[in-house]
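To start, an entry.
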Amino acid sequence: MASGYEYNYKVLVSKLADCDFEEAAARLGLKPPENGSITVRFLGRDYVIRSDGVFAVDGRPSASNIRSILIHYVTSQGSGEPDNKFYLPHHFLPRSFLPNSSRNSVFAGDDMRFSKAICEMENCFEKVSKALGILGAEYEGEVRNGEHIWKFYVLPKIPIQVIYYEADDEFPCDIKVKFDGCAGRFFDFETLAFLYGSFIDELVKLALDE
């Protein structure tokens, strides 16, 4: 029996039958379709999207969540260019979802696990920097003492910021991921949460492999 995530993916595939790939590619910053399919690069891998599903070009298995994210992107009605203003993931929570006092706590557990996984690595800054380089992120420098920023287009119209805070005498190192404000035009909050999780999982995996 297919997992819940795989089942959700198979349900979403039906949306591709009605997708105008030519229009979507132009609006979403993708190359024009070839032979009825479009190609999207996501977290270091290329995926072909056709009316019958999403397939990794390298032929290796891919997570159903990733394939679902790409269907949401291609069938999205979002448009326009990035805002160049970046926000932590909880910023995109619907206002009715939680009281304001609880909004910041939604990702607290995941954020702590993410930072711990990164910062317990030996030579963690060097490993994070190299992993981000593999993904194609652009290092924007040390904007303040001990605060390093990278910019990465997780999808063609959706940049993110990765901020690394070096450890000091009072606090351990920390790492944060922020989405451009435009992300909410392309994804609902649930899909954005899966995108966030997919990115940090890949970053940790690459850093551990170094």
Q: What stands out?
A: The helical segments are 4-13, 21-28, 64-75, 100-103, 108-119, 124-135, 183-186, 189-209.
